[in-house]
Design a protein that fits this description.
It is built from 16 helices and 13 strands. The chain is an alpha/beta fold.
Length: 379
């Protein structure tokens, strides 16, 4: 399991070399989905509450040794593979392991610099003379998108048949992700879905604040990430309208500095993760989680002139295709804001919200999802 510390400590190449030498399959965590090349044959997928069901199933049922590099395996990461962490031999390699020994008293810990430790381990590990491949029979799967039950807000706003869905938008955004740049996930349903469905380009860093799930942090964080970037790198923020309402004015800093950051705002007129929890655990009594519509594109337009700030808005697939073409033509001239108006919610691929038999797929073909069959989503 390659955690966020793998890249932070410069050990990502060493982990790749070890995994290929010893033919060890690798999973990444929500903390840095791209800590291991997502296109590599040994890559299993993502673990955590928004992770991939096939990855969790393989580790829980097949693994006998788990080598955790650069991660403390906080609850948001460890919960879906708790069975394996209790059953398997577990080794942690990190620069500091005191938190780990308290939570995993049976685990063995190696404390030190990650790069040199992994390189030393690779030197001692026998070479397996086989081609690089995933474990026999392993199929990488994700949860199929499902429509959530309507709420008072969505019922009041009639949903046209071609209304854009979050999963469709993410499939279309895949091609716009920055190779060698930065991807910052904010809080909420949009982040859970993006972490689950997107494949991270090689050498692209990913960042998310798990812990308290600070809504809105990704907007100013992207400014810092971009300021520390090399020439030619871009950043993309994936956030909700609640995050935009909290810290959206920080986009003006990106305008002032001319930073090539695309702020993608999923606008559903609600705090989506809160709505989902109220649907599931409070008999669909939606309180203090929905609010009057805000036109994100119009608000953002006031933060810079058309020559300084690109603005796009879409509420259909055709509209998003046009907006992405327009942004591509804009290039790296400065920041951009892309508003995605979502009139219909989907159940986020968040394991605490899903039944054990939630449908999965080994493809990323985004057909129109069916309504959720889970009774607790009944409005």
């Amino acid at each position: 399991i390659a955690g966020a510390g793998t890249r932070q400590d410069g050990a990502d190449d060493a982990v790749v070399a070890l995994s290929r030498r010893a033919q060890i399959p690798v999973a990444t965590t929500l903390s840095d989905v791209g800590a291991y090349p997502n296109s590599d044959e040994l890559y299993l997928g993502v673990i955590g509450t928004a992770g991939h069901p096939s990855t969790h199933r393989y580790i829980n049922e097949e693994a006998d040794l788990i080598l955790v590099v650069g991660s403390r395996m906080e609850l948001m990461l460890s919960a879906p593979i708790q069975a394996a962490l209790e059953r398997c031999d577990v080794w942690f390699v990190d620069v500091e392991t005191s938190c780990v020994t308290e939570r995993f008293p049976k685990a063995k810990c190696v404390e030190g610099g990650l790069q040199k430790t992994i390189e030393a381990l690779a030197d001692r590990w026998p070479v397996r003379l086989v081609g690089a491949s995933r474990p026999e029979g392993y199929v990488h799967q994700r949860f199929l998108p499902q429509l959530a039950a309507p709420t008072r807000l969505t019922e009041a706003n009639a949903c046209p048949p071609d209304a854009l869905l979050q999963s469709e938008a993410l499939a279309m955004l895949q091609g716009a992700l920055p190779g060698g740049g930065h991807l910052l996930f904010d809080a909420g349903n949009c982040a859970a879905s993006a972490l689950h469905y997107l494949s991270i380009p090689e050498d692209t860093s990913t960042t998310i604040a798990l812990g308290m799930g600070g809504m809105g942090y990704a907007i100013p964080a992207a400014v810092g990430a971009q300021l520390g970037s090399q020439g030619g790198q871009r950043s993309i923020v994936l956030c909700g309208d609640g995050a935009f309402l909290l810290l959206g004015l920080e986009i003006h800093t990106a305008v002032d500095l001319g930073l090539p950051i695309l702020f993608v705002v999923f606008n559903n007129g609600a705090h989506g993760m809160c709505v989902t929890r109220q649907q599931l655990f409070f008999d669909s009594r939606i309180e203090c989680s929905q609010y009057a519509d805000v036109n994100v594109a119009d608000v953002a337009r006031g933060l810079g002139s058309p020559s300084q700030l690109w603005i796009g808005s879409a509420q259909t697939r055709a509209g998003l295709e046009s907006a992405l073409a327009s942004y591509d033509a804009w290039g790296d001239r400065g920041p951009g804001v892309l508003e995605l108006v979502l009139r219909q919610e989907e159940v986020p691929p968040f394991t605490p919200f899903l039944p054990a038999d939630a449908p999965v797929s080994d493809t990323l073909v985004h057909e129109r999802p069916a309504p959720s069959k889970r009774s607790t989503y009944a409005a």
